[in-house]
Amino acid sequence: MIILGYWNLRGYGQSIRLLLEYLQVEYQDKLYHENGEEWFGTDKKNLNTNFPNLPYVIDGDVVVTESKVIPIYIIKKFKRFDLIGQNVDGSYNQNEITYLQLQEILKELLDKLEAQARIPSFKEEKEKIFNEQFNITFEKIKKQLGNQEYLLGNLTYVDLYFYEVLRNFQLFYPKIQIFTEYLKRIENIPQIKEYIQTKENKTFIFDSMKDKYYY
Ligand SMILES: N[C@@H](CCC(=O)N[C@@H](CS)C(=O)NCC(=O)O)C(=O)O
User: Fold this and answer.
1) Which of 56, 90, 182, 184 has the greatest count of CB atoms below 10 A from its CB?
2) What is the mean pLDDT of residues 3-22?
3) What role does it play (predicted)?
4) How many whole angstroms separate alpha carbon 83 and alpha carbon 81?
């Protein structure tokens, strides 16, 4: 059985959990306690890879780390090339490129939010920051989405990632409604719906980390 190892929080692990749920793969959601004892004390040293980190996936003898790479491993394993915008025969597909672009853009957006939210003045200035910095990117993504159901037309992993980015924005910007229909659409995918209703860990960030953010 695939083991997904990550801290007991959403973070870099959540969209990978959503992918495994979407694919209805049986997996162990190995959650590490925030005190880090189990991870740093034992498992990190014993993980059979030159690049031990969280999240990781263990699948038999295969160990994969790096949050952008793990989904590719899973998607290739289950031959769902469509979920990374690829054609089965490897021939050129513009979606494969747009997928990679979106992944970078969305990661930057999330990193920027997390960096900004660690600055004490964020609490007072967050609306201004949203309008001056984040909204520009959201407008571009809106254009990409257009009238399609998902960012590349059909569902890909980047939608599950974008979903998680939007959930983060909801936490820091509860009053701003963005991509509401799209969010609902993702949440209504049967496997995702089931996961949210039954297993989703509502704890967003460690209690200890909450102190690091201003919202
Ligand atoms: N580039 C890596 C970064 C991973 C990373 O920074 N992981 C953090 C949590 S988000 C961590 O605590 N890693 C455990 C460690 O450094 O041993 C990825 O995208 O997976």
Assistant:
1) 56
2) 94
3) Conjugation of reduced glutathione to a wide number of exogenous and endogenous hydrophobic electrophiles.
4) 5
- Cβ atoms < 10 Å from Cβ of 17: 21
* Residue 70 beta carbon below 6 angstroms from any ligand 1 atom: no
Residue 36 has what pLDDT? 95
| Residues 4/27, Cβ–Cβ less than 8 Å | yes
For residue 171, the enclosing domain spans 94-189
Residue 171 lies in a domain: yes
Closest CA to 85 of 147, 154, 16: 154
Closest CA relative to residue 15, chosen from 81, 78, 76, 83: 83
Q: What is the Å distance from ligand 1's center to 39 Cα?
A: 12
State the distance from the centre of ligand 1 to the C-alpha of 4, rounded, in angstroms. Answer: 13
Query: Is there a domain that residue 176 lies in?
Result: yes
Residue nearest to atom 5 of ligand 1 (CA): 54
For ligand 1, is residue 67 a contact (CB within 6 Å)?
A: yes
**Domain boundary pick from 55, 79, 103:** 79
* Minimum CA distance residue for ligand 1 atom 1: 66
Residue 84 lies in a domain: no
Give the pLDDT score at 102.
Answer: 98
CATH code where residue 59 lies: 1.20.1050.130
Residue 205: pLDDT band by 50, 70, 90 thresholds?
A: low
Q: Can you read off the two tokens belonging to residue 183?
A: 């969010």
> How far, in Å, is the centroid of ligand 1 from the Cα of 87?
30
Which of 33, 43, 54 should be mutated for ligand 1, with most atoms under 8 A from CB?
Answer: 54
Q: How many domains does the chain have?
A: 2
Mean pLDDT of 119-130: 94
Are 134 and 158 members of one domain?
yes
